[in-house]
C-alpha cells in the first residue's frame, strides 16, 4: 500500500514538473529567436547608416548585445565567426556570412537540422 502511495505521489510530481520543462525550453527558444531577429534588424540599420554616412558599421556593438548572457542556460556565444545558441543542454550553430562583414551579414542555420527547425518553429515539408 505504501509503495502505491509513493508511486502515485511521484506520478503527480512528474505530471506537474514535466510541462514546466517544455515551457521553459519554449520560452528560451522564443527569447533567443527574438534576440536574433532584433540583431538582424540592427545589422540592417547599421549598414544603411554606414552607406548614407560613409562610416564603418558598428557590428561589434550588435554582437556584444546579442551574446550578452542573462541566463546561464539560454544564451548566444560567438565562436570563430559562428554563432552558437545554447538552450538547456543543447547547442545550435548558426553561420555568419560574410565573415569579414564587408556587407550586411546573414545569420542562418541549416533547416535540415531538427534543432534549427525547432528554433524557428518550422516543420520539414515533404
Task: Please write out the topology.
Blueprint: H1 2-53, H2 59-66, E1 74-79, E2 82-87, E3 90-97, E4 106-108, H3 114-120
Antiparallel strand pairs: 1-2, 2-3, 3-4
Description:
The protein is an alpha+beta fold and 126 residues long. It is built from 3 helices and 4 strands. Strands 1-2-3-4 form a 4-stranded antiparallel β-sheet, with helices on one face. Strand 1 (74-79) and strand 2 form a beta hairpin. It is elongated, with a radius of gyration of 20 Å. The mean pLDDT is 81.
Task: Assign a percent range to the helix content.
Answer: 40-55%
* Strand tally: 4
Mean pLDDT: 81
Indicate the structural class: alpha+beta
The Rg value, from CA coordinates, equals 20 Å
H/E element sequence = HHEEEEH
Sequence of strands across the biggest β-sheet: 1-2-3-4
For the termini, the CA-CA separation is 51 Å
List the total number of helices: 3
Outline the biggest β-sheet: 4 strands, antiparallel
Shape: elongated
Which residues sit in consecutive blocks of at least 5 with pLDDT less than 50? none
Proportion of residues in β-strands = 15-25%
Brief summary of the model shown:
With about 130 residues, this protein is of the alpha+beta class. It has helices spanning about 1-55, 60-65, 115-120, and strands at about 75-80, 80-85, 90-95, 105-110. It has 3 helices and 4 strands, in the order H-H-E-E-E-E-H.
Amino acid at each position: 500500500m505504501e509503495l502505491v502511495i509513493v508511486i502515485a505521489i511521484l506520478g503527480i510530481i512528474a505530471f506537474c514538473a514535466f510541462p514546466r520543462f517544455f515551457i521553459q525550453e519554449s520560452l528560451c527558444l522564443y527569447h533567443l529567436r527574438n534576440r536574433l531577429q532584433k540583431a538582424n534588424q540592427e545589422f540592417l540599420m547599421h549598414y544603411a547608416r554606414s552607406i548614407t554616412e560613409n562610416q564603418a558599421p558598428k557590428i561589434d556593438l550588435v554582437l556584444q548585445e546579442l551574446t550578452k548572457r542573462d541566463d546561464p542556460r539560454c544564451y548566444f556565444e560567438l565562436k570563430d565567426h559562428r554563432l552558437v545558441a545554447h538552450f538547456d543542454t543543447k547547442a545550435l550553430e548558426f553561420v555568419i556570412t560574410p565573415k569579414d562583414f564587408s556587407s550586411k551579414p546573414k545569420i542562418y542555420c541549416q533547416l535540415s537540422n531538427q534543432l534549427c527547425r525547432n528554433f524557428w518553429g518550422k516543420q520539414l515539408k515533404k
